[in-house]
Amino acid sequence: MHEPLSEEIEVSRRILEANEQSAQRNRALFARHKVFMVNLMGSPGAGKTSLLEKTIPALQDMRVAVIEGDIEGKQDKERVEAAGAVSAVQINTYGACHLLAHQAEHAVEKLDLSAVDLLFVENVGNLVCPAEFDLGESARVMVLGVTEGADKPLKYPLMFRKSEALLLNKMDLVDLCGCDIGVLKENALRVNPDIKIIELSCRTGEGIKDWVKWLRGKMKEIQSA
Known about the structure:
Elements: H1 3-33, E1 36-42, H2 48-58, E2 64-70, H3 75-83, E3 87-92, H4 101-108, E4 118-122, E5 139-145, H5 152-155, H6 157-162, E6 165-169, H7 174-177, H8 181-191, E7 196-199, H9 208-223
Parallel strand pairs: 1-4, 1-5, 2-3, 2-4, 5-6, 6-7
């Protein structure tokens, strides 16, 4: 009864170890090229791509590239290219619910990092698996639509625990969906007392300046360390 469980643990350990090796190679590569990489996570429909469509034009002094992770399709890649990304690479997982570091590693090979200041990796839409796998990022950021409910930090704590910033998107709908923002923030801070919470709306533009200010500050903090 216990042997299969032991085998599963060993396989999982090997997968995570291999992933960490790829992540460290990515991190070293980004450091050499002085590229700041953001692992952008969140559920399907939270507004990750919409956030990039607002963020890229707001960073006109930076060269922003994007790696798009999706089960299938390239619609989001086309959207960020239209928003002004200097380059974009599509990863289709064809069923896998998250990106692995080696996938990001291969995607980066298609980018000219000497012409990139900021790289976003938009992870596959999922509130569970993406948080478990380091991609070599400089920062992890989570997007949560207020329409998803105030209980999500308690139901999916790992992603909140691993993220440095929580972007509460769709604030223009908060009254319609009945989400208690106070409770949502309280739950998020219970899971991660250090998480930066920013309220915004990709539809109205509310809070985008606050998000960009935080991002610039984080970039300066890490790159000057």
